[in-house]
Amino acid sequence: MDAVTRLLSDLVAIPSVNPMGRGSTGPEFLEGRVSDYLEIYFRGIGVAVERQVVSPGRDNIIARYDAPRSRRTILFDVHQDTVPADGMTIAPFVPEQKEGRLYGRGSCDIKGGMAAMLTAFARLVRERPSDSASVILACTVDEEFTHTGSSRLADGNHGADLAIVAEPTLLNIVDRHKGAVRWKIRTQGVACHSSTPNLGENAIYTMARVVSALQEYAEGLARSKPDPVLGPPSLSVGRIEGGVSVNVVPDWCLIEIDRRVIPGERAADCPGRVLAFLREHLDESTMKRVEFLPPWVNMPPLVAGKAEPFLPMLRTAIERVGGRSPEVIGVPYGTDAGPLGEAGLPCVVFGPGDIAQAHTKDEWIELDQVHQAAEMYFEMARELGQ
Predict the structure, then answer these.
(1) Cross-strand partners of 291
(2) I need a surface site. Which of 1, 67, 201, 375 has the fewest CB within 10 A?
C-alpha cells in the first residue's frame, strides 16, 4: 500500500462522526481521536501544532510551514468530521480497497482530501522548495453541522492571503456556493384524550397549516431572481415530529427548516422574512401558537470575485499535474469557505472525489484522484509562491 492510501485508510478507520445535534455517547462520535492522530502526524514530521479549542472536546488542529522565501501565505482547510454512518451497507470504519477505489465513511467527504493535503504539506516540509508559498494547514471541526470550527478559524489572525478548502469537486475549482440558515418552528396546543379531541388544541393540525404556507413560500423562492450560476434560493422542510401517543391530542409539533442562501442575501435575514410571510398568510389565532426558535446554522454563501486574481496560478498548477484545464464552477452546497470568505479571505474550494458519493450508504473515492490531488496541492503552493 502506498503512503497516500495508507494515510487515507488510517483516517477512515478512526471514526469522527458529527452527532448532528443528537446524543453523542460512544467512541465513534466527535473528532477527538482524529485530532490526536493529526497532532502526532505533524509532530512526526517536525512541525509545531496548535490545538485551537472550539468547544469542549473539539479542537481545530493547525500546523504551519514557513517557506524559505515566501511572497504569500496559503491556508489549506479541511474538516475532520463526517456525517453519521446510519444505514450504511458497508462497514463504515473498515477501509476497503476495490477496483481503484477506497470505501468507508468519510473517504470522499473529506478524508481523501485530508490525506492529499497532509501528503502535500509533508512534502513541502521535507523538500522546502525555494519557490513555495508558506502554508497553514487547518483541520477544522464541526463542518457538517454548524461550522463552528471554520467560524473560530475565521475569527483568528491567521495571516493568509488565500484559502483552499478541501471538498469533493472532481478536481475542479469552486469559486462560489450557496449558504444556509437552519432553524426550528414549534407549534403549541392543548393535550387531551383523543376520544374527545374537541377539548384540546391539536398542534399537528396547526403545523399542517404552517407547512402548507411554507410550501407556497418555497415555490415563490423557486420563481425568484436566480444567481446566474447557482440558481434561485430555496427552502425545504426537512424534519417533523410531534405528540407523545396516538391516543393523546398532541400539544406540540416541531419542524426543521433548511433555507439555502445565494450571494446578495444575508442568512440572518431569512427567518424574519419567513415569519413575515406566515403572518400575512395565516390568521392571528394560528400565529399565536407558532414559535420560531433561534437558528443553529447561519452559514454565509461564498461570493465569487475575491479569489479571481489567483485563478490563473491555480489553473497552471492543476494543468501541470493533470494535463487538463479545470472548470471553474459554482455548487449548491456549503463549505468552510463560507465563514472564511465572509471574514474577507479570498477562497476557493478544490479536492478529489465526487459530491455524489458524499454521505452515501457505500461511500467511496477514486484513489487516482487522491494521488493527483496530493500533487496538485503541492504544485499550488509552489505556483502561488512565485
Answers:
(1) 186
(2) 1
DSSP state letters, 94-123: S-EEETTEEESTTIIIIIHHHHHHHHHHHH
C-alpha to C-alpha distance for 115 and 110, rounded to whole angstroms: 9
Q: What's the predicted TM-score (pTM) here?
A: 0.94
Alpha carbon of residue 277 to chain centroid = 29
**CATH code 3.40.630.10 region(s) in the chain:** 3-177+301-384
Q: How far apart are CA 195 and CA 324, in angstroms?
A: 69
- Identify the pLDDT of residue 159: 92
Angle between helices 270-281 and 203-222 (to 10 degrees): 110
Phi and psi dihedrals of 379, rounded to 5? -65, -30
Third-level CATH fold of 179-299:
Alpha-Beta Plaits (3.30.70)
Q: In what order do the strands lie in the sheet with 96-98?
A: 96-98, 101-103, 364-366
pLDDT in tens, 199-208: 999 999 999 9
Domain 3-177+301-384 homologous superfamily, CATH: Zn peptidases (3.40.630.10)
Residue extent(s) of CATH 3.30.70.360 domains in the chain: 179-299
